[in-house]
Design goal:
Largest sheet: 4 strands, antiparallel
Distance between the termini: 52 Å
Number of helices: 2
Helix content: 10-25%
Radius of gyration: 20 Å
Strand order of the largest sheet: 1-2-3-4
Strand content: 25-35%
Structural class: alpha+beta
Order of helices and strands: HEEEEEEEH
Amino acid sequence: MKEPRLTWFLALIVVVNVILVRSAIASWIENGTPICTQIGQQAPTAMAPDGEGGAIIVWNDLRAGNWDVYAQRIDAYGNSLWTIDGVAVCTDSADQGGAVVVSDGQGGAIIAWADKRGGTYSDIYASVWMLRAYLFG
């Protein structure tokens, strides 16, 4: 008598998993899900897992007339979790570029980039606190 119950229970688990996977995939748009559609040029530079099935994406952005660094956190379904078109990581009046991102192991991230605010040559800057404000609110 216990075998039919186990079979039905296992079948139910499979059906639920298929429904969950299909709903996760259904959120992603064929040919790409937009992360930033702001006017101006954007150039993706890096992406890291957020530790919760999603990712944090960083890019260089020319929307303000010079290259800045922006970021967006997406969930496993492709939904943006932060401000539409990304949060400003650094918008100093000098150019920033070459952003990289790594998970901090606690649901956040550390972002580093090259920054010319010191003059002709680039210096390296990093940020974690700005992202934490969006993660932990």
